[in-house]
Design goal:
Keywords: Immunity, Innate immunity, Repeat, TPR repeat
Low-confidence stretches: none
Organism: Polypterus senegalus (Senegal bichir)
GO cellular component, one term: cytosol
Family: Belongs to the IFIT family.
Shape: globular
Protein name: IFIT5 protein
Strand content: under 5%
Number of helices: 8
């Protein structure tokens, strides 16, 4: 539960129309920015729909875009993706692969000041939470505002 990922953010499947959300995510994937977040989110939705192999494929795309679009900050951008991988493999019963991703997260966090074993206070992570809550359902808008304010305080010049 220390991981910062869609599986730990308290999203309730009953709060959303998954078919509508899928359509909105398909639209967002076509945009030139935000690919890592969109593919992470799509992976979680596929998990909710019981399509774990599709979820893994979307996580791979999120990881690939993190490498491509955020090469200089890849480790920060991939934290949520690796958390999603760990939880997805856990739910699939592959504890060994889940542990591999936990180890990678721990290694990344060791290199970032003020990090715990599995999470770190980063505007990138808070920003992903903001977009997740805003896209998921109206009931999460107030929580999204809190994380938006937190992310903007950490990185006031970051337009995204």
């Amino acid at each position: 539960m220390q991981l910062e990922c869609y599986f730990t953010w308290g999203l309730e499947k009953e709060a959303v129309d998954l078919d509508n959300l899928v359509q909105r995510l398909l639209d967002s994937i076509r945009l030139p920015t935000g690919k890592v977040r969109s593919f992470n989110f799509f992976a979680y939705v596929k998990y909710l729909q019981g399509c774990n192999e599709d979820a893994l494929a979307y996580l791979k795309q999120a990881e690939d875009y993190a490498k491509k679009d955020h090469e200089d900050e890849f480790e920060k951008w991939v934290l949520v993706t690796y958390g999603n991988y760990a939880w997805l493999y856990y739910h699939m019963g592959d504890i060994s692969k889940a542990q591999d991703f936990l180890s990678q997260i721990e290694d990344i966090c060791k290199n970032i000041s003020s990090a715990s074993h599995y999470s770190v206070p980063l505007s990138i992570v808070d920003g992903e939470k903001v977009w997740c809550y805003l896209r998921f359902a109206r009931k999460y808008y107030k929580v999204a505002i809190i994380y938006f304010q937190k992310a903007s305080e950490q990185e006031p010049d970051d337009l995204e």
